[in-house]
Amino acid sequence: MKCVVFFLLSAFSYASAESGAPVGKFQQHDPSIPTPSAQRNASGAPGTSYWQNTADYDINVELDDVKRTIAAEAKVTYRNASPDALEYLWVQLDQNYLSHNADSRAAPNTKRGIDPAKITYSAVDRLLAYEDYDGEMKISKLTDAQDKPLPHDVVKTMLRLDLEKPLAAGADFVFKIAWSYPINDCNRISARTGYEFFEEDGNCIYTIAQWFPRMAAYTDYAGWINKQFLGTGEFTLEFGNYTVRLTVPDDHLVAATGALQNVDTVLSATQRERLKMAQGELKKPVFIATPEEAKAAEKGKPKGKKTWVFQADKVRDFAFASSRKFIWDAMAVEGASVSGKPVMAMSLYPKEGMPLWDKYSTHAIAHTIQTYSRYTFDYPYPVAWSVNGPVGGMEYPMICFNGPRPEKDGTYPERTKYALIGVVIHEVGHNYFPMIVNSDERQWTWMDEGLNSFVEYLTEEEWENDWKHRRNERGMVDYMRTTDRVPVMTNSESIADLGPNAYGQPTVALNILREHILGREAFDHAFKIYARRWMFKRPTPSDFFRTMEDASGVDLDWFWRGWFYSVDHVDVAIDEVKWLQLDTRDPAIEKPRKKQEEDELPKTTTKERNYPLTKRVDRFPELKDFYDSFDETTVLPSEKKRFESLIKELKDQEIDPKLLQTKHNFYVIELSNVGGLVTPVLLKIDYTDGSSEELKLPAEIWRFNTEKTSKLLFTPKELKSVTFDPRQELVDTDVENNFWPRRPVKSKFQLYKDDKATNPMRELTKPEKKTETKK
After folding, report:
1. Helix, strand, or coil here: 474?
2. Given this model, what pLDDT does residue 330 score?
3. How far is CA 248 from CA 63, 94, 306, 322, 445, in A?
4. Nearest CA to 15 among 671, 668, 686, 703?
5. Helix, strand and coil in the chain, % to nearest 5
6. Range name among 204-218, 428-442, 651-665 with the lowest pLDDT average
7. For residue 596, how many other CB atoms are within 10 A of its CB?
8. What are phi and psi of 98, to 5 degrees?
9. Are the CB atoms for 435 and 348 separated by under 8 Å?
């Protein structure tokens, strides 16, 4: 559409939107988040009265490789740093999720319940396995420090410990507890913990977690975090110091949270020498236990037991792995040290993990620590382990369990290679979120999974060019267009699509924030401030939101509201492009131009309309007057006088009248926010001369009207086409309306054979076969 702009200054009003549509999406976010307090101030930092409780553990545990059980006892020292007197303590027994008495175990975890047409063999096998397996954590002893029994009540996956008198603010309480349980077979009862049995050699790999009674968190924002563990929402824990003595068969190798204290007792002289070599190796992992030694150990039998002692300070959890099948390699992480010693990247894996694990696992650990530390803070622990076993991917302080392996013939598809590197980066990255930046996983999964997946994305970008990300902008489009999404801020146990909701959506949101709203420098500064403010502390969502705004200097309330509190999605349509040219107001120019435009319009001839060829005025000339012979391009004196007055007025206002002679084009690009999610506007402008340019318009273009807006483009060139989000970076869910003029959008489909294998309904629609019945 082409029209004329009649007054120069009024044209610029097209750059802003009309008012009238709802603008609540730009209102301040303060009413929706907690009021700042002495514990958490308005800048998003810990306040002057910030506190958090701690719990220290001294544990003796034995893994029975014959019975496949855990038996342990512990002394727990709980410190009440809160200003409140506590009448009772809550302890997590997450292992009880696998108990016969667990309500959660029978609950369907699929999005819409159980579909009878899609019950799998593995699901039935799992149900049969549950008939024989009761994973309840049996509490055999619970006393105070003087061995006096303590009253308590087990409530599913929680234990309430009743105190004789309230635990005063600033006071400690010591209790002793003993327990045992059978370890689950992960091949049949999958969980975040368990063993994997190898039928070929009769051995097991144990990856053990959630194996001891862990103190629940008492917080300033919600009191006790004692929500039941239903299998999805992970863990909210207190920091503490751990001394753990692990007794296992004497031919096992063990990895665990913390630093090994009795190296001389549990490692051979050869292994100790290799470990010393690895501490100086930055380029290639060194075998501490070789593949040949692991194969030999598989064939042997233990001669007794061995106790491995680990010490871990300022950690919120403890996990370990044990097996005689393990190969062990290690290297130092370049640029990372603790107390003058290099941080060690180490991997344990069976021969079944080669040739993939020996090539990639330890390098991925080192790469993760180097990259994450640059975006957050220096890695504060002495070691980071990656262990191959039955758990696909799960994280704990200083140790993680990862599942991908090559095929049995030693080959591996590309997807397995990148699955391994990706999961190691992700799980090792969890040391930062939430093992150090200790967010509440039971309440807000996205605070650890989302932030961690975002930094994982950055880390994978630095591994190699063209990394195929699982959760990038294009991969999230299908999820974002679904109609049954829930907000990211939803409680962990109420999110059906946990992967895209808590991992993917925060990842793409933060990428958009970094690339298109704040810019990399401002974002990285603010993100690092958040991570460092909340090291070894427990942030809430509002602390993250406030810190990002405080440190960047940008009001982002509209961004948090849209991406984290709503189910809106990005869908921007280019409705129309209006082509405007400046009216010079000079009648000597405009009148001929107008006449030319009218003459260029297609006209229907008299002959086509079947009207008489001779007009009445031709047959009666007396009907003609001045106007029949008047030249419409003639400039009248009055018109000339008005133009001269305009020129004088512009000169009086010190505006150069030559502006009226500009040949520039004015294009008004009209946009609709169909999806509702406020977003920056990225436009690619193509011109008829073959050139192009890109425009990045801030999200504030919607601030007066969140449904409609427009952009004025002032250019000497003639416009050919306009594209919104040309590289598909904004997760726009409908690309068909992203173009002006509209163009067909290419997509692919597959052809299928027309047979009952691919069309099961065909069998039902066949005509009935006629049969004869004899009397």
Report:
1. helix
2. 98
3. 5, 23, 6, 8, 34
4. 668
5. 30, 25, 40
6. 651-665
7. 10
8. -100, 15
9. no
DSSP assigned state of 674: S
How many other C-beta atoms are found inside a 10 Å radius of the C-beta of residue 171? 13
Q: Using CA atoms, how far apart are residues 68 and 224, in angstroms rounded to an integer?
A: 34
201: its two tokens? 């050699």
> Could you tell me if 314 and 392 are in contact, meaning their C-beta atoms sit under 8 angstroms apart?
no
Q: Cα separation of 662 and 589, whole Å? A: 12
- For residue 719, give the nearest of 666, 660, 661, 681 by alpha carbon: 666
Q: Can you read off the two tokens belonging to residue 613? A: 């060829």
Find out whether 297 and 324 touch, Cβ atoms under 8 Å: yes
Token pair listed for 768: 């009935």
Nearest to 386 by CA among 330, 439, 434: 330
Do residues 667 and 579 make contact, with C-beta atoms less than 8 angstroms apart? yes
Q: pLDDT for 132-152, tens place per residue?
A: 899 999 999 999 999 999 999
What token pair was written down for 290? 């070789």
H-type helices in 601-745, by residue range? 616-619, 626-629, 637-652
What's the rounded mean pLDDT across residues 752-758? 54
Radius of gyration of the chain (CA): 35
Residue with token string 């020129």: 647
Residue 441 Cα distances to 333, 457, 646, angstroms:
29, 20, 69
Residues 6+ apart with CB under 8 A from 652: none
Residue 200 CA, chain-centre distance (Å), reads: 39
Residue with tokens 């932030």: 451
Distance from C-alpha of 76 to C-alpha of 142, rounded to nearest angstrom: 11
Beta-bridge partner residues of 701: none
Mean pLDDT of all residues in the chain? 89
Q: What is the DSSP string of 338-397?
A: ETTEEEEEEEEE-GGGTTTHHHHHHHHHHHHHHHHHHHS----SSEEEEEESS-SEEEET
Cβ pair 317, 214 in contact under 8 A = yes
Reduce the secondary structure of 95-119 to three states and give it as a string.
Answer: HHHHCCCCHHHHCCCCCCCCCHHHC
Residue 595's CB: how many other CB atoms inside 10 A?
A: 13
DSSP string, 263-317: HHHHS-HHHHHHHHHHTT-SSS-EEEE-HHHHHHHHH----SEEEEEEEEEEES-
Residue 747 class from Cβ within 10 Å (0-12 exposed, 13-18 middle, 19+ buried)?
A: exposed
Coil, strand, or helix at residue 556?
coil
pTM exceeds 0.70: yes
Pairing mode of beta strands 708-715, 665-673: antiparallel
Q: How many residues are present in the chain?
A: 775
Q: Is there a contact between 732 and 683 (Cβ–Cβ < 8 Å)?
A: no
Average of per-residue pLDDT across 89-116 = 72
Strands (E) in 533-612, as ranges, are 572-582
Q: 523-536 b/e with 16+ CB inside 10 Å = b?
A: bbebbebbbebbee
Average pLDDT over residues 102-122: 60
The per-residue pLDDT for range 33-70, each reduced to its tens digit, is 999 999 999 999 999 999 999 999 999 999 999 999 99
Q: Give CA separation, 732 vs 479, 482, 744, 753, in Å.
A: 11, 13, 16, 34
pLDDT band at 107 (very low <50, low <70, confident <90, very high): very low
Average pLDDT on 639-646 reads 74
Q: If we measure between CA atoms, which residue out of 720, 717, 594 comes closest to residue 663?
A: 717
- Percentage above 90 pLDDT, the chain: 73
Contact partners, residue 511, CB within 8 Å, separation at least 6: 454, 457, 472, 473, 729
Q: What is the pLDDT of residue 754?
A: 60
Reported as a pLDDT band with limits 50, 70 and 90, residue 600 is confident
